[in-house]
Request: fold
Amino acid sequence: MHCYSDSRILFEVLTEIPEQQVPYNPSKTRGDLIKLIVLDNQPLSIVENEGFQTYSAGLNPNVELPADSTIAQNILDTFHDAKMKLTAKLQVSIDKYDLNRMS
Reply:
């Protein structure tokens, strides 16, 4: 059985651990931004919104938000890469199917 005092002790121990600074990774940040826009159906112009810029700077002052035209190109590039990978996988499947039919 889990008791309150055990939870409180665990909380106190965890909150004593110093926060670790995660190094700024521009390519990961850009990828995460693309996912946000695509998955949540956000407009490309979200990066131009003052509120979004303030929020992003609050998370990490080193964040450099790209222009919406840059994001559009990044999304097209990501789509093209995914399309090429899918096409290659489908071709392998078609080739395997053809080999099995010929056997």
DSSP finds four helices and no strands in the chain. The chain has one domain: 25-102.
